[in-house]
């Protein structure tokens, strides 16, 4: 839940599922450089060609469409039964999400259910790529295959040959080839205009990601901490050291000058592609960085971390944009282990506190919420439309909020539209909040 306007079948590290992102409700807060809303590590980032829209995917099984201009979440997409490992923004404005459940969902803006679901993979999908002409979506899977999905309809094309998890894919700039990178140490370049066999390059290490530049050069991220550079035919032409541990995510700036390589210790190396050297290193909270993406300005990098936060960085200086958020490593819900309502609420922890002495986060504290009129908590900047509503927060009204959605129940809110369809989950949530948000009684003096 949130009162602000902004607000592998698993991964290699097994993380608990989260019911969904419960961002809802009740007000507005000033824009910040960080984006907070996911209830689990941010596994995927995709940015629109104009740099205005971000689509993030998380281990909490949801995706969020963000406005980067307003630092605001616009829509929460909940469909997948497991982690959302990959996202893509299509040329017609729609979104694609792919999960550890092996499915791909295609979404229109504002709709609560996918327009189309692609099924066929038999293991988690690790990556998505959109063809340069926008007509085809490619997916890489741990079932050792790559698939090509015509977005206009029709059967998928299956590319087989890898013998281990396929972790990364990229189209060549001319759209004639698809490049795949696998844990089997091979990089394959598949010709798409013929049935010819792919060109295969074997590298010294398992591969976790791949990108292709507009000039045809290919960069593959290795489990040995190196970036391997290959020409358009697959010939190895150079390498750069990102660090001593596996690179798990990689992105290239639009002009091809910089590569961002992230690792599980939270370090992000910025590589000068042409010089094949480490230019600088971004230092965050020290938690794993699972996803990276450049904004089209070629200098701003977004990172998605294990602390559920999306951060902005100046990749040219190595400095964070805005204050660096240091998260408390302690789990505030640990004392509620086994409580179903606490698990439903877990996705809200990034934005709300439960106790009065913990204060406000991106959203206001929920301490004492029941019995309080909407948008009246002192010390928090609520939006004007919410101040005009005659709603008092009770277990019934909070349940109704998630039953019919914020747009219908709190008109004027800019929060993403979402619902909790399960009666049992809504009941568990409000019962948990009824217990956990009661302020402690101060002793008489």
From TrEMBL:
The keyword Iron applies. It comes from the Bacteria. Gene3D superfamilies: Cytochrome c-like domain, YVTN repeat-like/Quinoprotein amine dehydrogenase. Keywords: Electron transport, Heme, Iron, Metal-binding, Repeat, Transport, WD repeat. GO terms for molecular function: electron transfer activity; heme binding; metal ion binding. PROSITE patterns: CYTC (PS51007), WD_REPEATS_2 (PS50082), WD_REPEATS_REGION (PS50294). Residues 336-437 form the Cytochrome c domain. WD repeats lie at residues 35-76, 118-149, 159-200, 282-323. The keyword Cell membrane does not apply. This is C-type cytochrome. The lineage of its organism: Bacteria, Pseudomonadati, Pseudomonadota, Alphaproteobacteria, Hyphomicrobiales.
